[in-house]
């Protein structure tokens, strides 16, 4: 998912145990929480509706899968209490938790696993049904044992199972997914008004440890200032993933609030259409890399918040290489040399950006820096998502763009020749394929190799990693810091 | 009289049909693909094409228009491509909120404008009248959204007396409803109040120079009494005209104010649906807004004839 505001948190369980809890005037612990978010779900069905907003609200809270991601981005057990993998990496035997029920009362068994995963191929149209392509067969060995056989070994599919496609459904609960969410999670949806709010109530029959917060209201804002004002005035308790960073500092100096800075998976990317006349020459793309002062872009667009990354890899991924941030130091002379070597002078490019604050601010800096090496970038801000998706993403009618890619581990999608970046390297695609089928150690090495090659070939300029900044009442505990997945895991938050 | 009513209804119906066609055409040429938005960046072009067919987007424009408008005529606004729910109830909910907001702001604007306008008119040669008149000029210059942000900063963020935004249904919690209504209504009404007070002032000044006021004074009435008994009704006609024109402006202003205060009214609904290219919903909302403005203008016309009997024979 590109450039969604959704920011997400998966939490450290430890903090909840330490919580003593604050009390309200009646002496009862206050177990209600109001969270302010920006992207509103259009409905409750992420099997056919794209976007991070629905998984942000429902994944891990209402819906659960066999596995989930912890706050460091590691796959951990959820509905599966454990699993074993055959030596050839093809057969996964999942031992399921017993006594789990869906919120409509129906039992969760290995049959639910078979039902849910087999539905993906035919019934899902959004949120990456192709992630489950490696699955060849699903077998309910007993009520609490599910065996999944892959057609080829795949390191990524279990990770992907922690996302929306791994969600467990019950046959009796899918009649109207757009308005009724029936899952096994710690919460159920008690009301939903699109654009306004989504109210979650603790599931009294939850199979696991009950969450501290019994009533959680997710309130949706269209304006980041309105969102921070609501926190300052006490209307809400938590903002997960602030999108305008100039609003952060006022909270740092205010003892009533805490500011949590973590890592997201959102790479803010200056994409160059590798298939266009302007950028088909690697030297021209590299010239752009040297021409851009990424720190200056981050300072302007993000008030300095973020992390220089230099590749399409988030620090929570095992193949993250911090040294790539220094691959192309700011060096306009070198940029001019490369352009001369490529025989390019007076280059004019179309620079089509989404009309989102960070992109509009960042594009001005990029334009200015490019002009110093003789590249003229004509900036057009397109309405996001509708027009940007149409012109840039679908029709590839652009030379340069600037947008955040927020989906975890989206580098393999980015490398596909049909993707809007137009990067076409059979070697890199082969290395990704080899990596997916390799043993876990070689997996990391090969992923590092492919992502480094993409940086060497300047497939795009990954300007910086968007920080995951949460603003919260000072007395909230267990607020997740990082956002390694799409989900906003509420189960660890306490007072 | 029956002919007049018939003509009015004819004009009304024609306007609605023309508005429906214009809305439909404008949205048809708007770039962006609802199917791509629904499926996101992971879907292939083939998936998107299939989705477009499923959503009925590949049918000819005339067929889509007739299908939509035909259903609207029997009260069926269709199904949202995003929420997959009937659009009618969503529009009704949002319209209710916007109407409450707009009417409250009109009432607040009048409550401010009438006494303030009369006062500045009566004192127009005095220093205090000039100063007050200057203040209302500043009010005209401050945009509603800025007023909203200032009100939030003072009363919600700093003093924490009122919520910074959001909405509570009056049926759920009437106190909460009023708390959430007051700041946005003031923000929306402030500019209108200032504008109206200027009109009240000039209107009253004009009336005070009329012969019948001089006659009333000559009969021995005091200045205030003459104005109150004979002047205000006459002064009200131009003010009502401006108010009628302003209601359309208020609806537009409500779109912005609803954003600033995160109020789920018709403006917020419209912007959300446009962003998602939920065309059946957008068409329905715009049509409801058109009808709403037409009905309000009709009511304003009606109010004229109540205020000024001379206008009755004219219609």
What can you tell me about this protein's structure?
The complex is a heterodimer of chains A (495) and B (315). In chain A, strand 6 and strand 7 (145-150) form a beta hairpin. Chain A contains 14 helices and 16 strands. Helix content of chain A is 26%, strand content 22%. Chain B has 315 residues and is mostly helical. Chain B has helices at residues 2-28, 34-39, 45-54, 61-73, 87-122, 127-141, 144-158, 174-208, 211-218, 223-260, 266-275, 279-307, 310-314. In chain B, helix 5 packs antiparallel against helix 6 (127-141) and helix 7 crosses helix 8 (174-208). The radius of gyration of chain B is 24 Å and the shape is globular. Chains A and B meet through helix 5 and helix 11 of A and helix 2, helix 3, helix 7 and helix 11 of B.
Features:
heterodimer, A: 495 residues, alpha+beta, four-stranded antiparallel sheet, 22% strand, disordered N terminus, B: 315 residues, mainly alpha, MetI-like fold, 0% strand
Q: What percentage of amino acids of chain A are in beta strands? A: 15-25%
Secondary structure class of chain A reads alpha+beta
Helix content of chain B: over 70%
Helices and strands of chain A, in order, run as: HEHEEEEHEEHEEEHEHEHHHEHEHEHHHE
**What gap, in angstroms, lies between the N and C termini of chain B?**
8 Å
Which secondary-structure class do the elements of chain B indicate? mainly alpha
Instruction: Give me the CATH superfamily of the domain at 96-307 in chain B.
Output: MetI-like
Helicity level of chain A = 25-40%
What count of helical segments of chain B does DSSP give? 13
CATH architecture level-2 label of the domain at 96-307 in chain B? Orthogonal Bundle
């Amino acid at each position: 998912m590109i450039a969604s505001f959704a920011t997400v948190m998966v939490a450290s369980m430890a903090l909840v145990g330490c919580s003593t809890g604050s009390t309200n005037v009646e002496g009862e612990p206050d177990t209600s929480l109001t969270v302010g978010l920006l992207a509103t779900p259009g409905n409750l069905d992420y099997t056919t509706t794209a976007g991070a907003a629905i998984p942000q609200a429902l994944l891990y809270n209402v819906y659960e899968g066999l596995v989930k991601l912890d706050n460091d981005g590691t796959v951990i057990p959820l509905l599966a209490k454990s699993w074993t993998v055959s030596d050839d990496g093809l057969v996964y035997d999942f031992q399921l938790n017993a006594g789990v029920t869906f919120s409509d009362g129906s039992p969760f068994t290995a049959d639910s696993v078979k039902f849910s995963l087999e539905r993906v191929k035919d019934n899902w149209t959004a949120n990456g049904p192709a992630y489950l392509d490696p699955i060849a067969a699903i077998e309910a060995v007993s009520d609490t044992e599910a065996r999944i056989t892959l057609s080829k070994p795949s390191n990524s599919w279990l990770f992907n199972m922690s996302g929306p496609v791994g969600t467990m459904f019950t046959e009796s609960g899918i009649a109207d997914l757009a308005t009724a969410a029936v899952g096994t999670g710690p919460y159920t949806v008690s009301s939903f008004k699109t654009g306004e709010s989504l109210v979650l109530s603790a599931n009294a029959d939850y199979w696991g440890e009950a969450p501290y917060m019994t009533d959680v209201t997710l309130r949706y804002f269209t304006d980041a200032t309105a969102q921070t004002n609501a926190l300052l005035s006490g209307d809400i308790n938590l903002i997960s993933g602030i999108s305008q960073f100039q609003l952060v500092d006022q909270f740092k100096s205010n003892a009533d609030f805490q500011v949590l800075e973590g890592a997201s998976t959102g790479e803010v990317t200056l994409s160059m259409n590798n298939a266009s006349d302007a950028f088909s020459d690697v030297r021209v793309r590299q010239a752009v890399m040297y021409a851009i002062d990424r720190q200056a872009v981050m300072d302007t667009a993000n008030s300095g918040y973020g992390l220089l990354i230099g590749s399409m890899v988030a620090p929570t991924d095992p193949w993250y290489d911090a040294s790539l941030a220094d691959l192309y130091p700011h060096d306009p002379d070198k940029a001019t040399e490369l352009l001369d070597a490529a025989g390019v002078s007076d280059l004019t490019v179309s620079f089509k950006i989404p009309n989102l604050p960070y992109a509009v601010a960042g594009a001005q800096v990029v334009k200015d820096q490019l002009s110093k090496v003789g590249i003229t970038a004509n900036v057009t801000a397109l309405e996001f998502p509708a027009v940007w998706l149409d012109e840039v993403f679908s029709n590839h009618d652009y030379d340069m763009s600037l947008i955040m890619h927020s989906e975890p581990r989206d580098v393999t999608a980015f490398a596909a020749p049909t993707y809007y970046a137009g990067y076409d390297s059979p070697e890199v695609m082969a290395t990704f394929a080899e990596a997916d089928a390799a043993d876990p150690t070689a997996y990391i090495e090969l992923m590092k190799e492919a992502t480094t090659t993409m940086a060497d070939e300047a497939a795009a300029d990954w300007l910086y990693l968007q920080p995951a900044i949460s603003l919260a009442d000072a007395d909230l505990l267990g607020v997740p810091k990082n956002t390694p997945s799409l989900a906003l895991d509420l189960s660890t938050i306490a007072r | 009289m029956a002919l007049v009513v018939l003509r009015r209804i004819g004009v009304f119906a024609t306007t609605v049909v023309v508005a429906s066609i214009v809305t439909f055409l404008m949205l048809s040429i708007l770039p962006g693909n609802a199917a791509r938005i629904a499926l996101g960046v992971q879907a292939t072009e083939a998936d998107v094409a299939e989705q477009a067919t499923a959503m009925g987007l590949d049918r000819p424009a005339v067929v889509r228009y007739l299908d939509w408008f035909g259903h609207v005529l029997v009260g069926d606004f269709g199904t949202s491509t995003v929420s997959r729910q009937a659009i009618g109830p969503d529009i009704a909910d949002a319209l209710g909120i916007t109407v409450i907001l707009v009417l409250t702001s009109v009432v607040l604007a009048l409550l401010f404008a009438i006494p303030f306008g009369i006062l500045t008119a009566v004192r127009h040669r005095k220093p205090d009248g000039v100063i007050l008149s200057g203040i209302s000029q500043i009010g005209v210059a401050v945009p509603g959204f800025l007023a909203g942000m200032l009100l939030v900063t003072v009363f919600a963020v700093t003093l924490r007396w009122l919520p910074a935004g959001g909405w509570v249904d009056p049926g759920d919690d009437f106190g909460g409803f009023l708390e959430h209504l007051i700041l946005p209504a003031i923000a929306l009404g402030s500019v209108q109040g200032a504008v109206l007070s200027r009109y009240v002032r000039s209107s009253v000044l004009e009336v005070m120079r009329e012969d019948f006021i001089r006659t009333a004074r000559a009969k021995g009435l005091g200045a205030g009494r003459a104005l109150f008994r004979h002047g205000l009704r006459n002064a009200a006609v131009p003010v009502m005209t401006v108010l009628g024109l302003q209601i359309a402006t208020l609806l537009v202003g409500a779109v912005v104010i609803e954003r600033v205060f995160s109020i789920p009214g018709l403006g917020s609904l419209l912007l959300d649906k446009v962003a998602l290219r939920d065309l059946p919903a957008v068409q329905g909302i715009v049509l409801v807004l058109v009808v709403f403005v037409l009905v309000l203008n009709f009511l304003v016309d009606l109010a004229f004839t109540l205020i000024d009997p001379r206008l009755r024979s004219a219609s």
